[in-house]
Write a structure and sequence with these properties.
The chain is 29% helix and 29% strand. The protein has 12 helices and 22 strands. A hairpin with a 7-residue loop joins β16 and β17. α6 runs antiparallel to α7, α7 crosses α8 and α9 crosses α10. It is globular and about 70 Å long.
Length: 387
């Protein structure tokens, strides 16, 4: 087992207090801190305590079959299939969606790396460890019609009425909003935000969503993404709730603190609330208007074991209560101690993890016992023991 040294990212949308507070560092930090990465992605591989201090990507690259196991390599290739993060947005993250593996391969065959940088899907899961505000999944046509009626912005209502006559009304309305001429975007966004201010007084879900759009507008004024947010479900995840974000799900994370597990990919297409490149035609091609992003909670998977089901075949997240063995697997695992002080013991060797510390367990590590007191999560690759 290897102790990991996670990598902190400093995106402008990050928090000046959340990650530092978890780690017991002084706040506020000089730079915003958006993510804490524990994995082997080439853009930010965690360090290890092996001789020579190689990072985890280098460790896996040197002997993928030893580190990942034959079954994992056969199924997913010679890279660690998942990435574990702590996510801490202090302001809304870009509105985005991720492709399926087939969609990524199709585009890369004709355009190379200009749109997608690898051939993988990028499913992800977000588990709230504090109240976490998100916009995720698109509303139904009936819900969109009610929102635009109550918002009473004539231009947006006309777009919605035209889109309602087409085969895929929500996709058509999204396309119409994103096709707003550049010289008219600010005016439409301002009318929508003004309507949201009025609507935010309503004591229902639409009023709450409108109030959230007003808050986002403080950081992203005159952005077409403010209009797009109204076409999406607004949710506040309670600690312990999660959303499983599959390919094609439109989403934007607004604020909070959470654990994110995702496939080890960088494939993303954006459509608003960002200074990074957007790709509207590709987003409209891959978005799934039927995906709702309904929150869920973990389910019991054995004594002291809670599983967070996902549609992904790249990762499986468990919460493990100390005093038992970790879930077994022939593949790799990452253990993350969010809070507390625990020990990992395997074959006579042990390692102590405290607040916000993590360890990589390579394939073949065998039985690992967890003891102590703490909140501990384990990420593994599902299905490797099945043909």
């Amino acid at each position: 087992m290897d102790r990991l040294s996670p990598v902190v990212f400093n995106d402008a949308w990050g928090s000046h207090v959340a990650i530092a507070s978890l780690q017991g560092r002084d706040i506020p930090t000089a730079l915003p801190e958006s993510e804490l990465w524990m994995g082997a992605h080439e853009s930010g591989p965690a360090g290890t305590d092996r001789p020579g201090s190689p990072d985890l990507a280098a460790v896996v690259r040197a002997d993928p079959r030893r580190e990942l196991g034959e079954a994992c390599v056969a199924r997913h290739g010679e890279r660690l299939p998942f990435l574990l993060k702590v996510l801490a947005p202090g302001r809304a993250i870009s509105i985005q969606a991720h492709p399926t593996a087939a969609q990524a391969r199709e585009v890369r065959a004709s355009t190379g790396d200009t749109v997608y940088v690898d051939d993988s899907a990028k499913p992800e899961m977000l588990l709230a460890i504090s109240p976490f505000e998100v916009f995720v999944g698109m509303r139904t046509p009936e819900e969109v019609a009610e929102v635009t009626r109550r918002l009473d912005v004539p231009r947006l209502r006309q777009m919605a009425e035209r889109a309602a006559t087409r085969p895929e009304p929500c996709r058509s309305l999204l396309a119409a909003v994103l096709a707003t001429p550049a010289n008219r975007v600010a005016d439409l966004a301002r009318q929508v935000v003004a309507g949201c201010v009025r609507l935010s007084e309503a004591d229902d879900e639409i009023g709450t969503a409108a109030a959230a759009v007003v808050e986002v507008a403080e950081m992203h004024p005159d952005d077409i993404g403010l209009v797009v947010l109204l076409l999406m479900h607004h949710r506040v995840l309670a600690p312990g709730e999660y959303v499983d974000v599959a390919a094609g799900v439109l989403h934007s994370y607004v604020g909070g603190l959470g654990i994110e597990v995702l496939a080890n990919s960088d494939n993303v297409v954006r459509a608003g609330l960002t200074t990074k490149p957007v790709n509207v035609p590709e987003l409209l091609r891959i978005v799934d208007p039927r995906a709702t992003g309904v929150p869920g909670r973990g389910r019991p998977a054995g004594p002291g074991l809670e599983e967070f089901p996902s549609a992904s075949d790249r990762f499986l997240l468990h919460r493990v209560r100390p005093g038992r063995l970790l879930p077994s697997t022939p593949g790799p695992r990452i253990v993350f101690c969010l809070r507390g002080k625990v020990s990992l013991t395997a074959a006579g060797r042990s390692m102590v993890l405290e607040d916000v510390e993590s360890a990589f367990l390579p394939a073949g590590e065998g039985e690992v016992r967890l003891d102590g007191v703490g909140e501990v999560y384990v990420v593994s690759v599902p299905g490797l023991d099945r043909p």
